[in-house]
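Figure 3 (text version): structure tokens given as input.
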């Protein structure tokens, strides 16, 4: 249930993510959440999408980030989709292996029927082999 949008910083991943989330609103029956490192893109999002500024919460590591995601899921039984922008920054995984955290998110998404779209500032070649099949867009 995890899809990756990959590419180095400045390649246009956020625009792709915003286009996807705004397009998804038309077909969605449940709710959609967009997590980012700030509220900078608030006015580019459809008003039906809930924007969460992750930087305003005291998350210290990737495990706490996964718990944060579980908390979001537990309080919204109509949640259909989660979009994660600036994944390495918001999940506290800069310069770390993303495999375990993305595997956890994939299992959580499968269990609760939620699709999770993640933008990562890494080139396709830098994504671990185990996650290559999750890449939806490479910029």
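Below: residues designed for each position.
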């Amino acid at each position: 249930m995890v899809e990756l949008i990959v590419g180095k910083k400045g390649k246009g991943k956020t625009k792709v993510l915003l286009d996807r989330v705004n397009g998804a609103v038309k077909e969605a029956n449940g709710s959609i959440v967009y997590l980012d490192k700030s509220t900078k893109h608030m006015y580019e999002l459809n008003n039906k999408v809930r924007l969460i500024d992750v930087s305003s919460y005291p998350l210290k590591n990737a495990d706490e980030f996964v718990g944060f995601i579980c908390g979001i899921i537990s309080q919204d039984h109509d949640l259909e989709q989660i979009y994660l922008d600036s994944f390495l920054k918001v999940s506290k995984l800069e310069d770390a292996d993303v495999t375990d955290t993305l595997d956890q998110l994939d299992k959580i998404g499968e269990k609760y029927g939620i699709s999770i779209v993640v933008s990562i500032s890494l080139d396709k070649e830098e994504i671990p082999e185990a996650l290559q099949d999750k890449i939806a867009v490479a910029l």
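The chain has a mean pLDDT of 95.
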